[in-house]
Specification:
Helices cover 54% and strands 12% of the residues. The chain has 196 residues and is an alpha+beta fold. The strands form two sheets. A five-stranded antiparallel sheet has the order 5-4-3-2-6. A two-stranded antiparallel sheet has the order 1-7. The longest helix has 32 residues. It is a multi-pass membrane protein. This is p53 apoptosis effector related to PMP-22.
Amino acid sequence: MVVCGLACWRCRWLLPLLLGLAIIMGIIALAGRGWLESESGPYVQQASLWESCTRGEEDLNWSCESLMDYGWGRAAAATYLVGFVILVICFALAVIAFSIEILRFNFVRGIGGLLFVVAAFQIIGLVIYPVKFTEEIPLTGDNMFSWAYGFGWASTVVVIGCAFFFCCLPNWEDEVLGNIKPTYYYSSPERAPYLN
């Protein structure tokens, strides 16, 4: 005998937990200095979302310039930051939505729509940055977009996945709330003669 169930009420905290994970990755991306780094030693270049730093091969001190002096730098930072702020708002709304006993599924679908907006803002920022950085900032040696930039993309991918789940969750409202009886499937009639 197999009991089929799509979701359970106790599992409702997985989506807010995933949004919290996306927030943590977004914080790492915003604060990290590893958006662009030298690929191998000597490490002479590194950049964050906010500034670009270089140093000579023998020098220990970094010389940094703000990317906020460039229009594209402000645009990349602003779009990623706006997406991050909306993500934090969506997280708070998701915690509120899943905390109440009577889950408002139209409210949940609205959170999914906002998450698509978050993903759009973050993608814009993540695309502007490498394109304009490589065009306008002189690069020294072999460089790569590194771990903090990767955390930015990871946060965006989690947000896109959560957006789909938030938008599709109302389709399974009865299963999530436990309003339907479980369906039992039997492999053959010989095993369940009392059903005839």
